[in-house]
Amino acid sequence: xxxxxxxxxxxxxxxxxxxxxxxxxxxxxxxxxxxxxxxxxxxxxxxxxxxxxxxxxxxxxxxxxxxxxxxxxxxxxxxxxxxxxxxxxxxxxxxxxxxxxxxxxxxxxxxxxxxxxxxxxxxxxxxxxxxxxxxxxxxxxxxxxxxxxxxxxxxxxxxxxxxxxxxxxxxxxxxxxxxxxxxxxxxxxxx
Length: 191
Known about the structure:
Elements: E1 4-7, H1 14-17, E2 18-20, E3 30-31, E4 37-38, E5 44-50, E6 53-60, E7 67-72, E8 76-81, E9 114-121, E10 124-125, E11 131-133, E12 136-141, E13 144-151, E14 170-174, E15 182-190
Antiparallel strand pairs: 1-15, 2-5, 3-4, 5-14, 6-9, 6-15, 7-8, 7-14, 9-12, 10-11, 12-13
């Protein structure tokens, strides 16, 4: 199965693959000289949907307070946060937002490109649509395993608005409504 490039290392594919969250309007993030896409203070949603998948994403948090995230199916957020030298919590880098902190701080200093490689397993359902197995993920942060096949306790706070309940497949959401965390080189292998 080939990887689907949603944002290339120099912004390729961005316009074709993303809309402003809650709309069908083209996403309006800005391409930077180093290939990063800079948010316009609005979340964006992928046009493609995914269930089980592997995602690679690179991100750069600004100095000061850098806070964003990537959400699977618009419901399960892995936090992108300026965590260099900080104690990890349920709100800092590589956390399952408001649920589980990362087990190790692999953060680079603000202003440097970092990466997540995330293996996401969608929730499983019975014939009546009831969740029988929770969504789970493994997260490698700059090459270090910091979440090892951990369960989400259900959707995280990013689920608000257009994403209700739990589903078999859904889009990726990149959080842009907090801080100016840049993203580049985001690709997905999955269905």
